[in-house]
Amino acid sequence: MEPFNGDFIQRHAYAAALYNDIYVIHVAGDVTGEAKGIEHVINRAEGLTEQIIYYNKSTSWFGKAVDYYRWSSIFKQAIRKYILENGKPDLVHVHIPFKAGLMAIRIKKKYGIPFIVTEHWTIYHSASQVKYEEQNALFKSILTRVVKQSDLLTPVSNDLGLLMNKLVTKKNFSVIENVANDQYFHFADTAKPGFSFRFIHVSNMAYQKNVEGIIECFAEFQQQYPATELVIAGHVSTTVKQLIDATGLLNTKIFLKGEINYSEVAVELQQADALLMFSRFENSPCTIIEALCCGLPVIATSVGGIPELIDESNGLLITSEDNAALSGAMENLRMNYALYNRKKIAEHARGRFSYTVIGKKMDTIYNSILTGLD
Predict the structure, then answer these.
(1) Looking at the domain assignment, is residue 140 inside a domain?
(2) For 27, 189, 330, 366, which has the most beta carbons within 10 A of its beta carbon?
(3) Contact predicate 215/247, CB 8 Å
(4) C-alpha distance from residue 79 to each of 27, 52, 74, 98 (Å)
(5) Residue 14's domain spans which residues?
């Protein structure tokens, strides 16, 4: 239904599967009406099995209570079936504690199996359109209960861990960064087409990404530096498309790639000169990690966990929603581009964010939890 939704969780699963046998259970409500009853999809790779269970989801107010009951029943049945066929797992790794964390609590209570919680959600940031503070008491109590009863909190950034400790509950945490598939995202000394300096932006173009600010700044920037271009990869809304049309730069200075697969994104990054991220709020964007693995210097806002990714060797940090700062950083990076060693940027990033590195980090955490129970 949403091919890119939760892709960062899938990458964690692939990384963990390098060192452990991983079985993923995901129960997804289908509002499109395509699911005929309950449908099971099983995907298998070395060390990893993904089970996605689709069910017809109600969109009515009354249907919400029924929907939760169906979701819970299907999830419980899938867990029972797994244990019957495979035995009890050593450990449960929850991604997104609301609502799946409730299943982990049940498993821990019934079987004595520990669980850890990884969070990715931007809801804890004050600039987010959906704010934790504005959620109802039931939502907050569930999230607090899940985090409290977990054996370890493993956010994707230190900033997120601190925010959850402040807003949700005090809990020891260990960061597990997002991961990049270095089969695709790696340094490639390839000559890009043309002679222009190429900026690139890759995202889902949501409110938090502030792609409108990037377009406005680039339109002014290229007037002073005409030998520059901007590539945008991801779904572009009608509103953003109209903004680009108004600049008169579409297909001459601004190029839209649309939604493309990971291998195609990697090629676009490898052929670009720098990544632009003008986010209003973030945790630890996969796009920045992937760009760094390709050796691109990055201009990004100093929000959330981004300062944990960017330093003077691999990019520039600016203030959110400060168009003048973005324009200044674009000029700075363009004029001082020779100071950035793309090969070293890529090597350093691979040493932090590759499947093998993050997979080993998860394996160490898993073992520490299990050893502590002995």
Answers:
(1) yes
(2) 330
(3) yes
(4) 11, 12, 9, 17
(5) 7-179+356-373
pLDDT, average across residues 1-23:
92
Query: Does residue 191 lie within any of the structural domains?
Result: no
Q: Are both 318 and 222 inside the same structural domain? A: yes
Collapsing DSSP to helix, strand or coil, 55 comes out as: strand
- pLDDT tens digits, one per residue of 204-251: 999 999 999 999 999 999 999 999 999 999 999 999 999 999 999 999
Using DSSP's 3-state secondary structure scheme, residue 349 falls into helix
- For 80-119, the pLDDT digits (tens) are 999 999 999 999 999 999 999 999 999 999 999 999 999 9
Residue 271: give its domain's CATH number. Answer: 3.40.50.2000
Q: Fill in the amino acid letter for 48.
A: L
Do 131 and 152 belong together in one domain?
yes
